[in-house]
Amino acid sequence: MPKDIPVSNGSFLLNFDSDYQIRDVYFPFIGQENHGSGHPFLFGVLVDGQYSWMGSEWEKDLRYENESLVTKVVLKNESLGLELRCSDVVDLDLNIYIKKIEVRNLNAQSRQARLFLSHDFFLYGNDIGGTAYFDPRSCSIIHYKMHRYFLISCWAHDQWGVKHFACGKRVTSGSLVTVKEIENGELSGEAAAWGSPHSTIGIWLELAAKGTTTAYYWIAAGQTYSEVAGLNLEVHHTTPEALLNRSSKYWKTWVHEDSLQLQGLPKSLTDLFHRSLLILRTQIDNRGAIIAATDSDIIRFGKDTYSYMWGRDGAFVAAALAKAGYSHVCMKYFDYCARVLSDEGYLFQHYNPDGSLASNWHSWLVAGQEVLPIQEDSTALTLWALWIHYQSLRDVEFIRPLYNTLIKKAADFLVRYRDPQTLLPLPSYDLWEERYALHAYTVASVIAGLRAAANFAALFQDTSLAEKYDSAADEMTVGVSHHLYHDGLKRFARSGIRIDKGYQLDEVIDVSLLSLATLGVLDSKDPRMCETAKAVREQLWLKTSVEGCARYQGDVYQLAEDSPKDIPGNPWFISTLWLAEYFIDQAENQQELQATLPYLEWCEKNALPSGVLAEQVHPVSGSPLCVSPLTWSHSAFVWTVLRYTEKDKTLRK
C-alpha cells in the first residue's frame, strides 16, 4: 500500500497509507528505528450506533496544502452523514506530530460522534518489552521502552487531555484485543499494558445540525519522560492551531526561498516541482543522511528496507537541491560521506542513518575471487555532486576540510581502481545492484567524479593533482569508445566482462547508457549516442496505455503477475526522466525542447494525488509499485525540470 503523505521535521517522521492510517514512525533518525514497523494505527468513527474504520467505506482525498508540508485530507462517508477535514504536520522545531480534525455533520439533526485513534507501536522495531499506560500527571497515554517515549494526547470542546482510553496486549501480530469494544463504542479504561502493548484513545464530539466541531490530537516523541511531558506542555502553551500555522507558513516560505523562475512550464509541473522539493526534505535526516525511501512495505520483499543512505541516491538528491538553490540542506550530507568513507577511499553499498554500515547485498566473492562489494558510482557521484554544491554556494571554507578527508581520498581511489591494460575502472556492481562487471554507467560516473576532483584540485592550486585526475578521466573517455562501443549494433553496450583482448559485451539495452551524455562524457549529438538513445526509446518505451520508460530489456523487478508478457519491464520515473534529460540536452530549438514536455507530464499524470512519486508504476493500471515516495524519483524530477528551464533560457538568447 503506497505511502501517500509523509510528514517530517528531519528527526521525527510519520508515513500514512492510502487509507489515511499511520504505518511508519521514525525517531530520532529518519529511516532508522521504525516504531510502527508498517502496522496500521487504526482511525475510526462511531455515530448513531454505526462504526466505521478508515477504509473502503470512505471517500478519501489525501493531499497537502499548496506549497506546504501540512496535509489537506478530506474524508467523506455518506452513509454516516459525516465529512472529516484533517490537517497533519510534524512541527518544524519540536518533535511533535499534530492532527487537526474538523468533523462536519451532514445531517439536519444534532448528534454525538466518537473518534477512536489506536496506536500499535513496535518500539525499536519489535514488540517485546514495551509499556503503554495512562499517565494521570499529563492526562495522556504514554508508550515507552528504554530511551524511546511517545506521549499521546488530545483537545476537544475546550478540554485538554485524554478522557476515554484503553490499554491492552496484542494477542497475535496485528491483532488488537480492544477492536470489538471500540466498535461497540466504549473503551474499558484499562490503564496499563506491557510486553506487546497497544492503546486507543477516544474523543467524544457533540455535533450541531449541519454543524462542524474541531478536535486536535498529537504525539510527542522523546527519549525520556520529562522530555515528552515538556513537549506536551508546549502544545498547551502554544496551542495546536498555532503550531500548525507556524509550520505551514515556514514551509511556504522555504519552498520559495530561491525564487526560481520556472518559465515555459505548465502550472501542474511547477506545482509538482515544488512538491518534490518538499518531499525531498522529509527524507533527509537532520544529521546529514539522505534516505532512499522510508516506506516499510518493501520489507515484504527480501526482508530488508530502502531506509538507508546510498551514495548514489544521496548524490543525485544533493545535486538537484544544490541546483535548485537549496545547497544548505545538504551540507551535513557531505560531512556524513566524509565520516563513513572507508580508509581506502570508497563508499560501501549503503549505510544506516546514524552512519553505521548497513546490510550489504553484494558478495565479497565472484567466481571464487575476492572482490570489493561496492557500486563504484556511489563514490564517484559524491564528488560530482559536491562540485555542483560548490558551484551553487562558492563556499571555500566549507570545502576546505573536505578536500583531504573526502575529495582526494575518493579521487585517488578512483584513479587506483583501474584495469592496468585498458585503464578503465575495475569491475564493480551496477547501479541496479544486480550484475558484477564493467558498466558504461559506472565509467561515466567515475569520469564525472574525476572531473569534479580535478576542478577542486585546481581550485586549491594543486596543479599536478588536477592534471592527474583529468588525465585519468581522459584515458577512460578514450577507453569507453574503444572497449564499450558495439560495432555490430552501432551503439554502446551497457556492460563488459573482461576477456584476454578486451571485453565481452552485454547487448541488453539499458536506460543508464544515456549517462554517457548526461554526465558529460560524450556529446548528446554524437552519432553513436544518437543511435544508443534511439535504441533506448524504441526498446524500452512501453506500448501500453500507461507508457513510460523501463530500466532495461527483461527487467522483472516488482513485475506483477498480471503484466503484459511483451513489455521490457515496469515504467520507472527515473528512466522516463533520464530519457527526457537526454532529449533536453539534444534540443536545438524551442520546438524540439517543447517536445520533451510529455516526459515531464507523464510523471505528473502518474503521481499520487498528493504529488508523491513512487519508484515505478504498474504498466497497465498506473498504480504505484515498490516504495513510495522514492527520494530518487523526486530528485530526478527536480533535476530534469531545472535542465529544461536552463535550456529554455539558452535557446531564447
Q: What would a concise description of this structure say?
A:
The chain has about 650 residues and is α+β, with helices and mostly antiparallel strands. It contains 16 helices and 31 strands.
According to DSSP, the number of beta strands is 31
Oligomer: single chain
Q: So what's the overall shape?
A: elongated
Structural class: alpha+beta
Tally the helices. Answer: 16
Write the CATH fold name of the domain at 7-254.
Beta-galactosidase, Chain A, domain 5
Rounded to the nearest angstrom, the distance between the terminal CA atoms is 47 Å
CATH class of the domain at 7-254: Mainly Beta
Q: Which percent range describes the beta-strand content? A: 15-25%
Low-pLDDT residue spans? none
Taking all Cα atoms into account, the compactness measure Rg is 26 Å
- Mean pLDDT, as a whole number? 95
Overview of the molecule:
The protein has 653 residues and is an alpha+beta fold. It is built from 16 helices and 31 strands. Strands 7, 8, 9, 10, 12, 13, 14, 15, 17 and 19 form a 10-stranded antiparallel beta sheet that branches. Strands 6-5-11-18-16 form a 5-stranded antiparallel beta sheet, with no helix packed on it. It has a 4-stranded antiparallel beta sheet with strand order 1-2-3-4, with no helix packed on it. A hairpin with a 4-residue loop joins strand 1 and strand 2. Helix 4 (267-282) crosses helix 16 (631-652), helix 9 packs antiparallel against helix 10 and helix 13 (573-586) packs antiparallel against helix 15. It is elongated, with a radius of gyration of 26 Å.
